[in-house]
Design brief:
The structure is a single chain. α9 links the parallel β7 and β8. Strands 2-1-3-4 form a 4-stranded parallel sheet, with helices on one face. It has a 4-stranded parallel sheet with strand order 6-5-7-8, sandwiched between helices. It contains 10 helices and 8 strands. It has 2 domains: 164 residues, Nitrogenase molybdenum iron protein domain (Rossmann fold, 3-Layer(aba) Sandwich); 116 residues, Nitrogenase molybdenum iron protein domain (Rossmann fold, 3-Layer(aba) Sandwich). With 292 residues, it is an alpha/beta fold. α2 packs across α6 and α8 packs across α9. Helices cover 45% and strands 12% of the residues.
Length: 292
């Protein structure tokens, strides 16, 4: 009788216990919250307004991962710092999920990558979550793993996935009409963060403030940018919130070009507290700037 009572208690605990999820970025964390609902507890290591390439490995992060059931990695060598956190956590039962598993990468180098090329990723550009279609793939990957680790709530994860996918479908239908003006527009970006976003929404990156990924612009490069802005009548430079504005302020002073700060991740700017809000924010800020 006593053993039966203990078994019932353990079953009740397993049904009520939340799956502890840690994500490298706020984007994967938010999607996991939407799929997991009340059955998950989610935290992210990086902040939304932080450069995801360079995140300090802290003991506090290792403690978070030590208590986790699942870790959501960006993959494609963006968050290699996460490997140190995972190793340091000594969590042998951790399920590590590569959220890029279903994604078709863009900008895969066609020749051997070396340091002279700057911060080039050999497996392709890793900022894939900035396409809503890839957001769907991330959600599907997370849902499958939650169902496997917590089969008792499998149906709920499936329903939440359907809600998420429909929310993206509905937005895509709305975006197609509201932001049609963006298609074919050319602009300058600070860093090569946006190829997936550009491909989906029909934008074109003419050139980057960085002469090579991760490399600060030189005076010669800035002079070249001034000529490009004037010759091609570029009206907008878009940048992430964590980069210095020294170069963009200089270009604005010399050419009058507009500079807008986009949200490369959930929480990077105000009113970007969900994955859907983050994408909409970027579309709206670009529409406003390119309509002037």
């Amino acid at each position: 009788m006593k053993s039966r009572f203990i078994l019932i208690l353990l079953m009740a605990y397993s049904l009520n216990a939340k799956v502890n999820v840690v994500a490298s970025l706020t984007d994967m964390a938010d999607i996991a919250r939407q799929i997991g609902g009340k059955n998950v507890s989610v935290v992210s290591i990086a902040r939304g307004n932080q450069d995801p390439h360079y995140v300090e490995v802290l003991p506090s992060s290792m403690i978070k991962v030590k208590k986790a059931d699942m870790y959501l990695m960006v993959g494609m060598e963006l968050d290699q710092w996460a490997e140190q956190i995972i190793d340091g956590s000594r969590n042998r039962h951790l399920r590590i999920v590569d959220c890029s598993a279903r994604v078709k990468p863009l900008n895969v180098p066609t020749r051997k990558v070396d340091a002279s090329m700057g911060d080039i990723h050999p497996n392709g550009n890793p900022h894939y979550w900035l396409s809503p279609e890839n957001g769907k793939l991330i959600a599907q990957t997370i849902a499958v793993n939650l169902q496997e680790i917590d089969p008792a709530h499998s149906n709920e994860y499936e329903r939440n996935l359907e809600v998420f996918l429909k929310s993206i479908d509905d937005l895509e239908s709305k975006w197609g009409k509201t932001y049609e003006i963006l298609r074919g527009q050319s602009l300058i970006y600070y860093h090569d963060t946006w190829p997936y976003f550009n491909e989906y929404f029909g934008l074109k990156a003419v050139v980057f403030i960085e002469p090579k990924p991760g490399i600060m612009p030189t005076p010669t490069h800035l002079d070249q940018l001034i000529r490009i802005i004037r010759d091609q009548e570029i009206s907008v430079i878009a940048m992430e919130p964590y980069f210095s504005t020294k170069a963009t302020d200089y270009l604005k002073q010399k050419t009058g070009v507009q500079v807008v700060k986009m949200a490369q991740s959930v929480g990077a700017q105000q009113n970007t507290e969900s994955y859907q809000e983050m994408l909409t924010y970027n579309l709206e800020i670009l529409k406003e700037a390119l309509s002037k």
